[in-house]
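User: Sequence for Alpha/beta fold hydrolase below. Tokens please.
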Amino acid sequence: MVRLKRESIYINYERINSEDPCARETLIFIHGVGHDMHSWDFILPYIRKNYHIIRYDLRGHGESDAGSEQRTVKLISEDLIYLISELNVQSYHLIGQGLGGFVGVQIAAQRPKYLKTLVLIGAPIHYPKQLGVELVRKRKELVKKEQSMIEMGQELVNKICYPPTKRKIKTLLNGYEKVSPEVYFELFHTGFGEEGTKNLQKINVPILILSGSEDTIFPPELCSASLYFNSNARYLTVPYASFMIQMDQPKITAEWIHKFIQRNNNQNKYINLPEDSYQKNLTSQIYAEIRGIFIQVDSSQSTNEIQVDIMNGFKVAIKENRIVDGWGKRKAKQILVYLVIQPSATRDELCDIFWPDVHLENARNRLRVSLHHLKQLLENNNEINGEPILGTDREHIFLRAKVSSDLLTHINGIKSAHLTEDINKKIGQYKNLLIGKTENALSGLYEEWFLDFRNWIEQQWIDMSLFLVDVYEQRKDYKNAMNYMEIALKYSREDSELSKRFISLKKKSS
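Assistant: Structure tokens for Alpha/beta fold hydrolase:
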């Protein structure tokens, strides 16, 4: 770690060289409010393969001085501009989480010469005012008169991580411990909306917006609303991750960022937003858009019912009437399964996933044809007159139905088991879930998103198996320990350490 002096304060930063000797580009990581540079620890091993890295502590966070001036987004943005200049960074990408995302937007709006792309993680540029005021009030209540943010941090870590592991909790609480309530609440508020949206409209580099599917504070519908402010923006939901997606899904997050950068490396022309008439109405309409999205994805009042089984063969039924034909055409199966897993998706998100190597306009046309085909498949077999099962609007695609699926049941079981504190109940839940494992949970789905998701499911099976191995080894029940070790080995793809442990268990059992 190195400390760089800027006027009366020192900024703590770290510069890490890429493992690739030919790397030319640098990723600059900007953490969220209350955290520090170590919130990126989990993702660094995957990022270093292709890029140089700069990460630092925001003013008043980690080991950086707070200074005597009032902390604002403008001031901490100037800190980063100074850091980039002093380190003579050329050809870089900004990756900001939460507050760090607002810093990234502030800098990108100035159109710096060497900035190539901007990645926003859990950074809702526009947040409803009344909800924002209430959110700040609740956090202040958690802090009360304490001089430490620890109590509030302990409350938050269980919400912003999925699941909250010991390592994640320790990393985040170390960050909260080093920031004062004064600094935190100077920077934590949701009043960046008007300025933030104006700055977002000025940005002329590609923007990737990421949020976690399990983020209950800044959910996907809220973060994806930023798409309305810049036509260069793309949005993706990271599966089974909360706000701290770089901790919950570091590999997937790193891969998606890398692919986004690679895809845009050779582009030098960007579409500008429409002018005044669009911008004047945008702010007032965004609230209605967000409310509409929430209503659309809430299918609890829908009379439609659809069953989509995936894990033991693909089967679709509406009101017990099975739909057999048509799934091999126009990516109907792939799109339906994606919408089962991710209840709402943007059009561009689907284009990026299913036609990644096709020009965006061409991909949108293909999506339009595919959605028409899928809608016909579903509606021709829906005997109940009423609202269509497949819902669409200008930006979003969603299922307007009560969805049942063996995959969702299995995943929800995994979620519940991970959160179970009673050790005996957890053992029983893990054993039952492992009975339901299959050779391939997503058979016939070969897009990269599905392969990543399949890897995530198999990793859950490995983790549950190893948990049971530990339990039975402690009980000296080596037969059961070996049985679950075999499951872990099956999905861990030639892990030498697990193989050695299996041999050790075998010796103990004999």
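The first helix runs from residue 44 to 47.
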